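Exercise 7.
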Amino acid sequence: MSKQLKNKIEAADTSISKLLKEQKFYIDYFQREYRWKEKHIKQMMEDLTTTFLKSYKDGDKRSEVGNYQNYYLGPVVFSVNPDTGKKSIIDGQQRITSITLLLIYLNHLQKENPKKVSISELIFSEKYDEKSFNMSDDQREPCLKALFDEGNYSLREDDDETVQNMVDRYEDIEQSFPEEIDEKVLPYFIDWFVENVVVVEIIAYSDENAYTIFETMNDRGLNLSHTEMLKGFVLSKITDKKQRLEINELWREEVQKLHQIEETTDLSFFQAWFRGKYAVSIRPGKAGAEDQDFELIGSRFHNWFKENHKTIFKLNDSDSFYNFFKNQFPFYVKWYLNCLGAQAKYDETLPHLNYIYYLGIAESLQMPLLLSPVNFGDNDETIQKKLDSVARYIETFTVRRSVNFRKFGQTAIKYTMFNVIKEIRNNDLEKLFANLSDEVDNITEKWDGVWDFQLHGMNRKFVKHLLSRISSYIDNLIGKDTTYVTYHHPNGRQFEIEHIWADKFKQHKDEFDQENDFHDWRNSVGALILLPNGTNQSFLSDKYEDKLEHYLKENTYAQTLHPKFYSKNPNFLKSDTVQQLKFKPHPHFKKDDIGDRQKLVQRICEHLWSKDYFTV
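Solution. The predicted structure, written as tokens, is:
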């Protein structure tokens, strides 16, 4: 290798198409794991689809996509061996993995579309009829192949963190993809994504240079963040030196608390606080419309605050700035952090916050919603009731959407949720409960969607959530102290979804002529329960009558299938709620029995997410 080539560094902006087409990347050992979380993939999907929809107009020719607004996705760094041409990813593996998952999903979406866009060569290269995915990693290959061929992948015991996250993030993509991008619009979006999304590709021809670039890019340096620019403006408005020093120190302490979560939590906090308490406008959903409060807070909240501190915040002099940030800033930091804490770890005073951590809406909507009714001066008990009630509304919304196979990505619901933010802003507890009760009535999707609801390749996460809520709820009816955590994310043995029917079509030919019909009924939510991991796997091939005795040893919801449960637990049937739910045993489990359980699930949902919660 010549010294000149070894020292060479190339950098150029490129498209997704040029970056990935028939390429082969090797993942460097030190960044092998794929660790993007749900919030990262949802933020990427929100940014991409929102940017596209700002430009797209019905009636556009496909050729006009080239003039649509571009989107900058970020840099990627490669080290290229000039002798072998081997290309290793030094920085950007998380981004490229996420792009690949999105391309696989888009390829599935367009399978039946007559105007299909050729993107498979961006996912893999093919030689001698063998697919070779663009990221060379033996651990990923089976998962990527299954996702590409079937659209789902069944996790194995030896799958690592990367594969688990890839499966989860693929499901997040499916959930986040907006319904506005339908079959007609899809080719435009794919064209835009592969040609108008910009990536800066940086190539070094020695590992030493590549690692130097990596370290430089991940060093924050001296660039001022939006939070720091906001602080500078605020301090400039406080003329009393002593007060200025006090706010400067308070600011440092509060931001430090936020940074203990993540380095960018301060940015998320200000966006949630300003959107929840002060934003009054949102960009109309039409091409060419100008960004309004909601979007401006998301992109440059420090500028938005500077332009609106007099009109919206009513901050007109030094004392008003001082008092506002001395009192309200730490107050809302405290409750923002309390929200994050209760979402991440179950708190019996704020249970619904933990539920929406696993089945919530986009953070850009969820956190402003939670803060919106919280008023400076409310006592702790009132605030906890407010937070849990808003989280209750959010979960009711997401569950009802999910059982009706409706998505709730940011693009699809942001106007609805922004109106709710404004409706509940600054409410007292009584008014908040009344407004949230009305908003539940306004949810279009009803509980009768449960009748057709079933497990499929991309909703396993939601089905686990639903069954965890149902199982703990039924346990609680007979006095057990289990919670959602017991079934959904326990510290010890995990619970898995159990099909009551084994995957044996031949055993059910008395009721089904077509195997597809059998699978539809087998996957119905009324034919599913939760069992401890390992227990369900040992039952895979058993007939129902053989498994029934084992179910009697499991959670209450599973036990209710067995006739003996009712004779051994006479108090169960005396409960008013149980009588309303109309439980009954199933000594055999045929198609009609699944139908009965399907209706039972609907009744449980109606009780579990009843509006009776919203009473003072």
